[in-house]
Amino acid sequence: MTVTEPASQTPVREALADAVATLGGATREGQVLMADAVAQALADEEHLLVEAGTGTGKSLAYLVPSLLHDSRVVVATATLALQHQLVERDLPRLVKAIGSRPGVDASFAVLKGRSNYACLHRVREGAPDDQGTLVDVPLGPMAEKVLELRSWAEKEAENGGSGERDAAPRHTDREWRQVSVNHRDCLGAAKCPFGEECFVEVARDKAQKSHLIVTNHSLLAIDAIEGVPMIPEYDAVVIDEAHELVARVTQAATDELTAAEVERAARRAQKHVEGSEADDLADASDALRAAINETSPGRFVTLPELISDALVLVRDAARSALSALPKPKDSDGADPGFQQAKGGLQEVFTTAERMAAGSEHDVIWLNEGSDRIPPRLCVAPLQVWAQMREKLLREKTVVFASATLKLGGDFGPVAGSLGLKAEERTELGAGAQRTEDVLPWVGLDVGSPFDYGRQGILYVARHLPPPGRDGMGAKTLDEIVDLVDAADGRTLGLFSSRRAAEAAAEVVRQKLPQLTTLAQGDAQLPELAAQFVADPHTVLFGTLSLWQGLDVPGDTCQLVIIDRIPFPRPDDPLMSARQQAADKAGGNGFMQVAATHAALLLAQGAGRLIRTTTDRGVVAVLDARLATARYGGFLKASLPPMWATTDPAIVRQALKRLSESASA
């Protein structure tokens, strides 16, 4: 749909113009249209899905109307990178530009999960071991790093810092756990001797006083959908990177259980339980381990009897151990060992109870273990659209923003996954009334500042054999070498598996030794990305984390190779269950689940190519099914509107011209 140009400037347009002028940017039509739509959606309490292509400036387009809105707005992102960009760059600059305007409440705060902040109690008193005994400093090479993190946390407390993990010295996950706690192990501000200084409490207090709160999808899901209060009261939320929301909500509602976790909970409880209840839980962990060892990995349509019986044993033993915990005396109120034991028992009980129930609304499977990771039972919600509709969309006004919301050329697939119904769609400003049963929503595509038809070529290698399960064939590998050679490097390869990426990298290294070929896993991603940007004669091959998280504008990236259509694996427990459920409900499970999943990833992967108005290049899909299969049209309609060809000679010539131009 389109938005009608108003006769006069609105407060939102005026503030946006001031912000753009102050920040040294240029007015972009799509940004103005989006800001208008966000303001109207917030005012009319209508849900809005807005697709804004890369380069539109969508952050400003939702931040300006959010600051002008008459009540608190929450902004939720999927990635820490975008959250950091909003808090450290966009919002401070925006506040400086328009913060003094009438009607603008420019106060803002950031909220993250508890484990993202250092815990002063753990820093000053030490971390409990498995038996609940406080250990001052871990032994071995970790000790020096933990001491450095403790010193940093003390300086943060002394100087009024945030205590956030992102600001800490470089560290590993294991090292960070020695100076932080999760919500289960936290003593609570009232019981903790350092509660008044607590970084989390300080952050929450600041959020309580702020007009705009920046958080992440997972924390939003815990607050709005699971009903655990994490965010101060709000009526409206802007969800950026909204294409990720379903996956993040699903992740937040997924639980895991291993025999080792049950055993650990039993050990921690033994110090505090006088009877045999903790020992009974240890016995239950042995039963669970034996049941897992006797069971084949994969999804359970019905729980195997061995697994079901073991889960009941674990559930009942954990409940008994919880009941046997003594009521803490006032003097024991700040005992981290007791809190850790209680939290561990509660988590084991809750997860085992959920799994043992075998609800038709859950999917349960056994993940195969490895040398380092034990096998684990997993449970996830079959769908999340109903929870989002009931707990989020009924209660709040929601703006969903992303560069990828239209799949197959339509908002319907994504809207349905979020809990919105096709028949509820309306026009912006139509005055549709929200009721208990009807949640009006608007879909708006504000376009892109890029001329994809002139800037990009979509090449589908129709002549190649269809991809098989045994990896890439010789013809596909030869095609990759020919394309990379024509581009003289400058290639980002997005592969469906680590094995495929490594195989392609090895062949390119052998046949094109003059180029630098990097594969995911050779180093940390930031280091690989920096090397890729620094030298145009570089090739970077990787998997999913490169499909969405890499931003490399300019001549560095003139060729994006996608080895195959990224359908979910046939043995993916959750995706296969969702596909079967859609078929059972009379729908087309393949199109609703597998094709939609593939379309979203394809759009994100292809979006790595054109990042500025001057970028040029080719997206090469080495999967003939995009041109030959019946679902190919749906997938292509989800991609940027690039000029399309299946002729390899045309593509190689275009890449050579681009390479020569970049080198001139």
UniProtKB/TrEMBL annotation:
It catalyses: ATP + H2O = ADP + phosphate + H(+). It comes from the Bacteria. Its EC number is 5.6.2.3. SUPFAM superfamilies: P-loop containing nucleoside triphosphate hydrolases (SSF52540). It is an enzyme of class 5 (isomerase). Coiled coil: none annotated. Residues 154-176 are annotated as: Disordered. InterPro entries: ATP-dep_Helicase_C (IPR006555), DEAD/DEAH_box_helicase_dom (IPR011545), DinG/Rad3-like (IPR045028), Helic_SF1/SF2_ATP-bd_DinG/Rad3 (IPR014013), Helicase_ATP-bd (IPR014001), P-loop_NTPase (IPR027417). Residues 17-302 form the Helicase ATP-binding domain. GO terms for biological process: nucleobase-containing compound metabolic process. Its cofactor is [4Fe-4S] cluster. Keywords: ATP-binding, Helicase, Hydrolase, Nucleotide-binding. One of its GO terms (molecular function) is hydrolase activity, acting on acid anhydrides, in phosphorus-containing anhydrides. Belongs to the helicase family. DinG subfamily. This is ATP-dependent helicase DinG. It comes from Nocardioides luteus.
